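In the current project phase, our protein records have gained a structure token line. A sample record follows, to show the layout:
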Amino acid sequence: MSEVTVTSLSNLRNEVSYGAGRTLVTDEPAEGGGEGEGPDPYTLLLAALGSCVSMTVTLYARRKGWPLERVRVRLRQRRVHAKDCAECGSKADDFVHHIERAVELEGDLTEEQRARLQEIAHRCPVHRTLTHEIAVTELKG
């Protein structure tokens, strides 16, 4: 189980504590009222997804003994009206958060291996979390 603690610092800056004494700072860009001292929450969300995709694909290729050398995941997020996003597949009447991504694979891979790794990219745990129901509740204790 993962756990983080977020503590406000000044203005919109926060310190995120995780693991054994590890921290990072989050903030909003200046145009959003922050100071640009760290990534904003949506950047962290995209980073979590991209990191999970990269790790999942790398571990799968390693287990198969495939010559994957590098994974690059590019992501964009935007809020769009559901009716304006045919590929989103949403039945909602309001807005959806649409994430676009591209997974680039480097290495001497066959076309079959590349295709399989692209399939595996959709199976990373964070991708599954984001595409399934999420419950956020009060932390007890």
Remarks:
- The chain has three helices and five strands.
- The longest strand covers residues 68-81.
- Strands lie at 4-8, 14-18, 22-26, 68-81, 95-107.
- The chain has a mean pLDDT of 91.
